[in-house]
Amino acid sequence: MTIISQLVNKTLINLEGVGEDKKELLQKLSKTLFDKGFVTDGFASAIMEREEEFPTGLRLEKTAVAIPHTYSEYVKKPFIYIVKLSKPITFIQMGTSDEEVPVNFVIVLGISEPKNQTGLLVELMNIFGQDEFITKLQNAKSEEEVYQLFVTVEMEEEL
Fold first, then answer.
1. Can you list the alpha helix ranges (DSSP code H) found in the chain?
2. pTM, 2 dp
3. By C-alpha distance, which of 138, 157, 48, 127 is closest to 85?
4. Which positions fall inside the PTS EIIA type-2 domain (predicted)?
5. pLDDT per position as a tens digit, 62-110
6. SS3 for 124?
7. Distance of alpha carbon 71 from alpha carbon 14, whole angstroms
8. What is the mean predicted confidence (pLDDT) over 128-152?
């Protein structure tokens, strides 16, 4: 069983994420998380601050994702919030301070145990490197389809 399959939640899948920019998008997503009881009221400002300091945009071969997250003190219940954007939103490439990436998917992480963060990020990098997974995700028409995709995904072995 993967960490991803344990944290994905049917109520935290959005196939029509919108925002004028990453700030507006992250504020909207944070409000949803707060309203559903997953995070504290400090989460929105904390995730914005962390995104500015440590960008999470990631250009991949077939798509681009952002994986914003912040410190465990703002997380009430662990989660993965999967958002497919209606149109790409610019994030900054991970490991840079100015390289822009037009992101199609945002995966907000809520980690309550910091020791699990690295394993979760490794799993996400693994699945987002799988062509078949990306194709199925891009073509998914319902929240249930996305949920099943994340719950049943297999890790690819390194060659």
1. 3-7, 22-35, 43-53, 117-128, 131-139, 143-152
2. 0.93
3. 138
4. 6-153
5. 899 999 999 999 999 999 999 999 999 999 999 999 999 999 999 999 9
6. helix
7. 23
8. 94
β-bridge mates for residue 13, sequence order: 82
Amino acid at 126: N
pLDDT per position as a tens digit, 14-41 = 999 999 999 999 999 999 999 999 999 9
- Would you say the C-alpha torsion 123, 129, 132, 133 has a positive or negative sign? positive
Task: For 16-38, give the DSSP string.
Answer: EE--SSHHHHHHHHHHHHHHTTS
**Among all chains, which residue has been given the structure tokens 């990306």?**
134
